[in-house]
Amino acid sequence: MVTCKETCAAIIALHKNGFTGKDIVATKIAPKSTIYRLIKNFKERGSILVKKASGRPRKSSKRQDRLLKRIQLRDRSATSAELAQEWKQAGVNASARTVRRRLLEDGLVSRRAAKQPFLSKKNIRDRLIFCRKYSEWTAEDWGKVIFSDEAPFRLFGASGKRLVRRRKGERYHQSCVMPTVKHPDTIHVWGCFSSKGVGSLTILPKNTAMNKEWYQNTLQQQLLPTIQQQFGEEQCIFQHDGAPCHKAKVITKWLGDQNVEILDPWPGNSPDLNPIENLWSILKRRVDKQKLTNSDKLQEVIMKEWVAISQDLAQKLIESMPSRIAEVLKKKGQHCKH
């Protein structure tokens, strides 16, 4: 039992004033065992402070701990066993388990590396140019932009990640596994959205190449009706990435002929700047929950879940653009958390 310092001091004060252990117990100030223990400790050591146990000596000094931290930060992917070997060369003979404990004390936790597109120097430069150009834009400004992209959907829940909660020994339980096949059917879609909600979504027919002819037809049949429906005569801006079929001269000319303004210059390898990527992730999670094994049913569910996306969700994603821009600038062109 933990006894407060004031109670301990009161017990010793009574003892010094001639009270016996029995007399102090009668006051019910603390349990009997606590009272007699405190009196015994006071008689033996002249103090009521609990002597700190020596324990096992720490294998490393603070300076050596800092060295371990520097070694880990120099190579983030180094395993605890590899770090233990390198630490040993510096004079610390410690196990991999000890290495993990020291790193945990510094807040360095082992986690799966996040996957992001590789950013070349040109990519970083282009991202900074883009973000500086639109750094003053408000959420209202971004509300006039229609974002677009293509995305693949696969059968057997392979489109996105899936987490399950399981007990020990249930790793291969039927309800805890994600079925896979060697060559799953893949459905490619093109979609667009703005702060006013989701726009058109079209499914690319099988054995159809994603070329400039297909893309122009998609823009004609899907983008223009979305612009008319969501913006009417109001001016809006169209975003698409730098895929070859997007940047074809015939496409650029066609968009100009239709008086469609393009959001330029869009930087390469920058899905974190495109909020439609978040929309794809949400859509894939909803679709994957259906555990579909039929391609036709998959197409049906994709369309159904797409139109079910709320305008409120679309608007929140668009409103995140100023913070995305600010974060990329703060990180000097590197990926942002979005």
Automatic annotation (TrEMBL):
UniProt GO BP: DNA integration; DNA transposition
Domain of life from the UniProt record: Eukaryota
Residue ranges occupied by any Transposase Tc1-like domain in the UniProt entry: 66-134
InterPro entries: Homeodomain-like_sf (IPR009057), RNaseH_sf (IPR036397), Tc1-like_DDE_dom (IPR038717), Transpos_IS630-like (IPR047655), Transposase_5 (IPR052338), Transposase_Tc1-like (IPR002492)
GO MF annotation list: DNA binding
Tc1-like transposase DDE domain: residues covered: 145-298
Protein name: Transposable element Tc1 transposase
Species in which this protein is naturally found: Anabarilius grahami
